[in-house]
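User: quick one
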Amino acid sequence: MKKTRVCELLGIEYPIIQGAMGLIAGAELAAAVSEAGGLGVISPNAGEPDWKKVGDNLRQQIRKARSLTEKPFGVNFPIHMIGKDRSLIDIAVAEGVRIVTTGAGNPALHTAYFHQQGVKVLHLVATVRHAVGAEKAGVDIVIAEGYESGGINSPDELTAFVLIPQVVDAVGIPVVAAGGIADARGVVAAFALGAEGVQMGTRFVATKECLAHQRYKDAIVAADDTATVITGRGSMLVRGLKNKLTERVLQKERAGGSDEQAIAMFSELSVAALLNGDMENGRAACGAGAGLVRDIVSAGEVVRRIVAGYDRIVAGL
Amino acid sequence: MALKRTRVCDILGIEYPIVQGGMTWIANAELAAAVSNAGGLGTISPNAGMRLEDDVVANLRGQIVKAKSLTDKPFAVNLVVFIPGIEELIDVLVDEGVRVVTTSAGGPRKYTPRLKAAGIKVLHLVSSAKQAMNAEECGVDAVIAEGFEAGGHGGFDELATMVLVPQVVDAVGIPVIASGGIADARGVVAAFALGAEGVQMGTRFVATHECIAQRSMKDAIVAANDTGTMITARSLSPTRGLKNAFSAQVAEMDRRGATADELLAFIGVGRARMALLEGKVDEGEAYAGAVAGIVGDVIGAGEVVRGIAADYDKVIRSL
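Assistant: Done. Structure below.
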């Protein structure tokens, strides 16, 4: 598999990044991905629904990951969740984290601070304008996330095929592609479009090491090509598995309204699906590539399959 | 010039597996012939260039005759299956010896046997794995897997090319042609990596000298950036076009939950023709794919094909 600037910047063997899925991207998963040569990323609230306890949780997760691997791993900071408060950031830095992914907010807020601490910053973008802004703010890498991705989504709805090449053309820093990628075919496709790395979320949920509830993993494996849907157009777009909840929300949205309860209870509904396995009434964030995920394997196996498949696919082109 | 030869080339008798989409109103004989002459497969839309009141059957015959005068190579005709009078259109293309037909917006069961019996190759447009399996069972020669990125009317499931193509490839044994979001060699190599054996492009071919679309429409595509298109009328038929005054009005109706009937009444007849052929880009449905931001110039259709063939190797060497 091709070595890119992403490998050099992050000190990793393969430019394969595990997305930091809220609530379920814990130390075991991140360490397994990093051990296999990719970059694992911890979500501060992994396994901990109570945001008031997130600081201690993050510290424990980092220490646990450190006990499992000596290779680099990252931590994700959703900027809209932390705002200007740097207490979580300081915990990660004090624990020796040197790579962070940021998103859902202004990259100018913390990037300079990260750099002062010797931390590399990967920032999530969904349009060319945001990518250019992130480069100006000094981030090291942009993660260009397409409409295919699970969870919170951009209202601009740009898919991987059109977003990646336009971001690549617009910035000089490396571009990591995200959204709709679950196997080596998608990785080669993303590289053909100019990406120098990939980030995958849904594929890594269906792994042995992920904290997700077994029923959530099974639902991803069972999903076909039409199993996910976008809700929240007009408020906050979210892609997830179709279920009773999304059907109820969509009914209201089709009539020109919105489901206030689903919006107000966003966190609780996510906990219900991701950690407690309520696949009918919970909010099960999931990418449109779920139909490509057909088994629950170890996270290291995901990385190894892609590395092995990459050269075979390139040779067939 | 080493664009990979695939089963699509063999089935259609073409050099490069690059298909020009049969864009309604504007996929004309000159465009189709230019694409076919360059080694791809050009496609004619039966209503290319005609007025609303003209006879589509006579128009199609005129377009086919013209294309035959411009090229000896195979070209296709696109049939929108749900429109009335399709039997007469099939009579014409059988009579004129058209070798390839692309079908869309309707089931493949009804017309595929007749087209196949006439020795015509059938490419059917699908937007999910289930539709692809159905098309294969109906005997089509290849499926065109069209992603959410495509301009004009799309599928309700909104599957983007990145996720649609590999799942269709896994579901059928016949060749898969990728469509939606492709405008240059990078997109073509990406589609091939996903398992496609050909590509279909629409928006890239609108911005060519040979396309009959009004200059203002071509210029609007060239001017578009990454966020230049949007989907409207999701409850009626999800439609992708350039953002303009008209799409803003439809989007407002979408937001307040307008019914399919209300949308149909507002959009009316000939809206796409206004934007594509009458130069009223702002008042019409300006069909364009999400890839419009990648299209940066108006060039010859043959140059589009040759450029991709030339750049294909360069992209592969970068992998």
